[in-house]
TrEMBL record:
Residues of the signal peptide: 1-25
Organism: Pseudonocardia kunmingensis
InterPro entries in the record: BUG, Bug_dom1
Record family assignment: Belongs to the UPF0065 (bug) family.
The protein, known as: Tripartite-type tricarboxylate transporter receptor subunit TctC
Record keywords, A-Z: Receptor, Signal
Domain of life: Bacteria
Xref: PROSITE patterns: PROKAR_LIPOPROTEIN
Entry-linked PANTHER family: BLR1237 PROTEIN, TRICARBOXYLATE-BINDING PROTEIN
Amino acid sequence: MKKRSLSAIAITAALLLSACGNVLTGDVGAADTWPSRNIQIIVPFGAGGDTDFNARAYAGYLEEDLGTTVTVVNIEGNGGATGTAEAARAAADGYTALFFHAALLVNEVSGASDIGIDDFEYVATAASSPGDIIAVRSDSGFTDLPSLIEYSTQHPGELKVAADVGATTHVIALQLQQAGANVNIVSSGGSSDRTAALVGGHVDVIINPYGTIADYLDNGDFTALANVRPERAEGFSDIPTATEQGVPQINWTNHYFLALPAGTPQEIVDAFADAMEKVNQREDYRTDIFGAYRQEPVFGRTDQGLADLQRTRETVIQFEDEFRG
């Protein structure tokens, strides 16, 4: 009798240890039934910006395809590092995802975070910005990028450029300095904060996604000096690129991606990617993103997305000393 009890205890203990091991690795035997409860998508910036918009543009349509509630949660702070850390610590079960972009690399290179893409399973590239805009108040007198750079060399340190320090706009501001602009980079938070700073005259230059300043461009309050992408955007083709104005140092493309905590079963990663690709092909999704941000649908699976990130990392790493200085 005693032997049978000990054997039963041993078997039970082994089963419990096996179950614990599966939970830790994310292999909980639930891939076949995923999703069976609500999904949370963490955006590491505040509501109302470009990253938040793109996450929410997917969320509603994902609910239709996956048959469950998909909630976008904004966890901002430290250039995106705070929300990224929260997502990386989540259970690897497919119910918490990160929606982010290359600021993940900037956080890591700058020392703001020790979390990188290796702490996640890359699901897919979900969208691509048609280009951030270097903009000024229209009463500044600047009409193009070369005139701003020339003025800054004649009035060193006078102009203030707003950036989210440790994030992608910080890289673009450093590229502006690399191009010869003698400007001060001022930490001014996210896109809505930077817009308010320019409206209030607290800074002279901002670098923002088109959609966040479109109304100010349309009503004449702001003037767009350059698109930071290497080619003009179809949705606002009247805005020239920095490259065509003779400033090739300013060259930045922002890809948005969705990732799951490392160890998430591949079946869940693939199922999430399949659902996102279906959303990306919807005409109503296309209408949504073009109307708000003049974006066109972009989608890429893991290999393509990681290759894009690696190329971006090569750009970011050039400024490691400036980030940490």
